[in-house]
Design goal:
- The protein is mainly alpha-helical.
- It has one domain (about 1-145).
- Helices cover about 55% and strands about 5% of the residues.
- It has 8 helices and 2 strands.
- It has helices at about 1-10, 15, 35-40, 45-60, 80-85, 90-105, 125-135, 140-145, and strands spanning about 20-25, 30.
- Strands 1-2 form a two-stranded antiparallel ribbon.
- Helix 7 (about 125-135) crosses helix 8.
Length: about 150
Amino acid sequence: MRFFGILAAHPEARVRALADTINDPEMDRDTFCFFVLVRGAKSPAKLYVINSAMTIFAVNLTMINKNDESVLNLTKMTPEQKAAIQYQPSSFTTFYKHVFAHMKNKGIAFEQANFTGIKGTSFSLIYFHYFNPNLTLSPLHSLQHRLF
């Protein structure tokens, strides 16, 4: 649900539409538009949609605001504040495994391994480059990275 919450909060209407619930013609029940759009035979267009959605998920996934249920506004935070609420790469690996397992249950043929060959634009590579600046901004991340 955090995956679809992040997509639903995106400023672009096309991305928000992926989190809309629609009637699934094959299952005759409501499901997310994302599942209906990327289900079936693999194609470059579906690969692009999933990679884009996973990139948006990676860049916007932060630790939950413990004080209340509100969404954190990243645009008003300093780089140090943003770094402090970022998950470690190992946590992202766990999140991705859960998302791809759920997609498999919904009939989506793509697996996480299908995205490793996308040079320069794979969601995992984009996250890696996005996370690197956090290592210098967050003492906790730097310490854990050195221990690793």
